[in-house]
Amino acid sequence: MRFNNDYNCGAHPEIIKALENTNNESYCGYGLDEWCLKASDEIKKYLGNANADIHFLVGGTQTNFTVIAAALRPFQGVISADSGHINVHETGAVENTGHKVHVLKSENGKITAEQIAKEAEFFNTSDVKEHITQPKMVYISFPTEYGTIYTKQELEEISKTCKKYKLYLFIDGARLGYGLGSKGCDITMKDLAELTDVFYIGGTKCGAFFGEAVVITNDELKENFRSYIKQNGGLLAKGWLLGIQFYTLFKDGLYFDITKKADELALEIKNAFESKGIPSYIESFTNQQFVILPNDAMEKLKKYIYEFEMKIDENHSCVRFCTSWSSKKEDVSELVKDIKLL
Amino acid sequence: MRFNNDYNCGAHPEIIKALENTNNESYCGYGLDEWCLKASDEIKKYLGNANADIHFLVGGTQTNFTVIAAALRPFQGVISADSGHINVHETGAVENTGHKVHVLKSENGKITAEQIAKEAEFFNTSDVKEHITQPKMVYISFPTEYGTIYTKQELEEISKTCKKYKLYLFIDGARLGYGLGSKGCDITMKDLAELTDVFYIGGTKCGAFFGEAVVITNDELKENFRSYIKQNGGLLAKGWLLGIQFYTLFKDGLYFDITKKADELALEIKNAFESKGIPSYIESFTNQQFVILPNDAMEKLKKYIYEFEMKIDENHSCVRFCTSWSSKKEDVSELVKDIKLL
Amino acid sequence: MRFNNDYNCGAHPEIIKALENTNNESYCGYGLDEWCLKASDEIKKYLGNANADIHFLVGGTQTNFTVIAAALRPFQGVISADSGHINVHETGAVENTGHKVHVLKSENGKITAEQIAKEAEFFNTSDVKEHITQPKMVYISFPTEYGTIYTKQELEEISKTCKKYKLYLFIDGARLGYGLGSKGCDITMKDLAELTDVFYIGGTKCGAFFGEAVVITNDELKENFRSYIKQNGGLLAKGWLLGIQFYTLFKDGLYFDITKKADELALEIKNAFESKGIPSYIESFTNQQFVILPNDAMEKLKKYIYEFEMKIDENHSCVRFCTSWSSKKEDVSELVKDIKLL
Amino acid sequence: MRFNNDYNCGAHPEIIKALENTNNESYCGYGLDEWCLKASDEIKKYLGNANADIHFLVGGTQTNFTVIAAALRPFQGVISADSGHINVHETGAVENTGHKVHVLKSENGKITAEQIAKEAEFFNTSDVKEHITQPKMVYISFPTEYGTIYTKQELEEISKTCKKYKLYLFIDGARLGYGLGSKGCDITMKDLAELTDVFYIGGTKCGAFFGEAVVITNDELKENFRSYIKQNGGLLAKGWLLGIQFYTLFKDGLYFDITKKADELALEIKNAFESKGIPSYIESFTNQQFVILPNDAMEKLKKYIYEFEMKIDENHSCVRFCTSWSSKKEDVSELVKDIKLL
């Protein structure tokens, strides 16, 4: 039973079925097909923005560096939490496109409007601007790498700060569904469309075989985006495969249902640990639960595949238990039972 | 009926079935799963080289620039035919990684050992080497963009020349099956493994939903290749999807059967045009047929979707008819009949 | 006696004197000093454009790739003659910044408005724009690598074509003085300022120790240019050294006098060869003379250092004789005498 | 009277004289002249390493990114103190070449062997190496941005750590003379040649008009270095200008004399401040003195040009007083007198 991550299983059965049903059809290539159009239309219903441009890419790292490389000029950089995926888990892909990551200290994966303002002010008030990189984009993830989420108010403040300093706001939504469906989340896709310049809706971790849907609302970032996708290797020849997947996920809200369910299962795990006095490393209400396990508990739970994060001290480690759209109720129940037996 | 390209249909039914059968399983991510291993093993049976490294990427452009960026130092470039995919259809992806494409004139998509030697000699005999880029890799495609293929002798000569000048030989096999299965082809996968430093086996155009299998035989190019894949956005989270597809295609030789059949259908089209005195733009025995159609013939065949290439003169245009693993015998027969009626 | 190039001697004595005179002064760094300002003012007198931005960089290759990297987005490329310095003698510096060089065939170092229009049309009329690079800048040199120059009419046509297709026109003026001072030249600095978006005035080859003055007239290219200079290593700490040199060269027209004189000396060499029936490889009226020398003449002139270009046939080679601001009348006279003795 | 930096004055009079004396000579271009050879020979006398490769570049930023780009593969990064010049004052030039800067926290501009080991261990023990960048080079400056210097023991430990983890050790010696000449320094050029893989000897800030002499002792870094210089715009056409300057500085130890004198003058300033109870921001014995000035003292010293660094609190600011080879004894005496009057 894998609880190590949220990309260990194929795709939702509806997607398999949709691919099967269309397998005898032939389509126009490179995302210019009817399924991508239909998927965009379904997604737009949630955005409240008919003018958004929607593009379908294959994976998260690819999406991150493509969006960033498309937005920035060579002397500009992107602001990120120190724990941001682009800063720590993408083999320097952003730097490989020539851009600096402006790193902000973060305890729980989140950064604040104040921190962003300070970084922007540092540049704006510098009298040697040509010697330093200009922060021009803010990258945040929703949920973050630690499973935490921004409140609507936090996001509004960040958005306002970005507008004030002419920074693009870019949200990595690789796990977007798990954020939107989580307990206490007061943010909607419409909010994201309004508050950001560009964000993406993760498919890979949220029910699809693969795929990330990029939503661009700022006209400045729309131009030539397909050229950037192609140049960076993200333009899938059989683009309709992405369209079909996102259409399936969004036409009846399947995307939201399956991720919400995963959040609920994660909370069962969270509660089970809490009831045993095993603390969270970071408080999360989404599908990722980071807990500080004593060594003997690690041993006792070893039949479950979970992810080791780091040693905390001689007797404890931080580990991640992750649910997903594919997690089975009965598996979680078994895990919960075993936790209670600790 | 689409004859415009070889990537307009989903995947071979066996692949759909394999994906369905494994959809309830969970796997290790990023290509470290058992299916990728099994696929590699099947492919190696054709290579005669147990030490080859095999990596699965998603698409062709991505594979091309990743291989090239991994192999070259900043002052080095890659030799290509002027019509090479990396030179004309990848939005400058190679240059985007910082490398010059050394362009060689080509009439039919192929380049010769002599041309390569001349380019290498130009650098080697220069007394201002630090002012010019060093050609360090040769990129050829098999089949080429025009559907032509190299003979074994040509490839041996190119390989020998590359060894002499310490150039890496890289073959883009996006359409590899259609080359290997074509009439008159005297080359095998084993030859490719012996004669090149790195090549890839195209899946996207040859029966898979997507995927390209990179075969690296030169130890110098093996090191850290996964880092390059990740950095360039090609490391699919659910890597086993690639493994399953290639395993399905190679375990019983399906790959070779379905591409060979496509070649045969293409020859029927070729012969039909020839019998009507409609000449090929370039003589090809693979799945791509470029013919010079009179305007009225273009009109008469317009119920078929084919690809316009360029105007030849007032009355003629070069167009491409393309078969693929998904082409149906009956569709080709209908096209052939209509050609005969021209 | 060196006739091999135009950068084999220090600087004009006036420049040495100016550097000496200011050596006890202290200045603000990075080109924000009074000398750079004064130099700009002197240069602007020739431009008829008070709004031009003028920046001083150290060398030509650096200037070329900095200007190009500053102007282009990642999917855009620069058009150049095949013999263009950026294409053949800069170790792929442009590609190293991520951009493709769109190469146009040229016989004499020049390209035409028609060629440019064709390249731009190819992109504009493509229906797969996102798969190809967009030509966005035209790079020409004045004089060219072969010493040839554009006529005013040719340049006007090129400029018009660039405007029509929204291409930036960039002139590499590493040898600008030798072009402007040459017999038959009907172009002025004012014309350059009007017809281009950015060009530069070569100092290194025209009397200075080093230095190139970039003149930007297009507002789109002005923004943040100093950031690009710094990022690309061209922002000289003691920037006033550039200011002093250009001020010295331009305050009384010294720049034009010394380069014109070099052109006249070059014509003496040209005429001497012609009178002996030794043909030019390419007809040039600037300081570079390319002639086709028989082997025995090469031998007889070997006390002069000239530059070998290439073998023409068994008995002839193309060689370059180059004058410069530092060429001495008496040396040229001796060479002319020896040519006449051939 | 400028105490704001160490690059506000031309060049040592001996250099002016040397340039004058050679101004009528003509030389081979691009650093292949006899002066560069002679300068290298003089420098090698201090290195105790006849096999070192020495290259002359124009400026520090250029040298930094050229050395780093030449050493690293795309997935590799360079370790630096957070205050390192490459991290904060080069407009992201390192990232522009595609590489991540691995930032280590530092209080006084220095980093420790322990910190380096920890960063290297993090990579070495990671089980997702292909997802993260590999630190492959350590960049330190001597003296640091804060004027501090490493002891021989510290440097030996760092060197040993680098060897252990196969990291290249690169020292930015833009102010090298001021480090070597400072009170308490127990390091020599020979030590640097032994302990590093590559370092450079700053000319721009230490008596020359411009120029940095790169010393490469590791054979792996020697290959094709001239190609990297050219590609990155650092290959000065009239390379002998660099050779002459470094020859002048090193043939009789002038380099060491003039920088040592500057250090002594800086200590006078330091002592003057200390005697008034005005504390250093960071303790330095080289030419840069960072002090925490009360507002009224700032006002009283405003006839001197010094560099503002940052506000410390309402009533205090950190400012830099910098001496250099060109600082005049009498100016320092006047400043010292005025400090004493505070």
Short description:
The structure is a homotetramer of 342-residue chains. Chain A has 15 helices and eleven strands.
Task: Characterise this structure.
The structure is a homotetramer of 342-residue chains. Chain A folds into 2 domains: 13-253, 3-Layer(aba) Sandwich (Aspartate Aminotransferase, domain 2), CATH 3.40.640.10; 255-340, Aspartate Aminotransferase, domain 1 (Alpha-Beta Complex). In chain A, 42% of the residues lie in helices and 18% in strands. Chain A has 15 helices and 11 strands. In chain A, helix 6 (113-124) runs parallel beside helix 7 (152-164). Chain A is globular. The first copy, chain A, starts with 12 loop residues before the first helix and ends with a helix. Chains in contact: A-B, A-C, A-D, B-C, B-D, C-D. At the A-B interface, helix 1, helix 3 and helix 11 of A face helix 1, helix 3 and helix 11 of B.
Summarize the helices and strands and which ones pair or pack.
Four copies of one chain form a homotetramer.
Chain A: H1 13-21, H2 34-47, E1 53-57, H3 60-71, E2 76-81, H4 85-88, H5 93-96, E3 101-104, H6 113-124, E4 134-141, H7 152-164, E5 168-172, H8 176-180, H9 189-195, E6 198-202, E7 212-216, H10 219-222, H11 225-231, H12 240-251, H13 254-275, E8 280-282, E9 288-294, H14 295-300, E10 307-313, E11 316-322, H15 329-340
Parallel strand pairs in A: 2-3, 2-4, 4-5, 5-6
Antiparallel strand pairs in A: 1-7, 6-7, 8-9, 9-11, 10-11
Helix pairs in contact in A: 1-12, 2-12, 6-7, 13-15
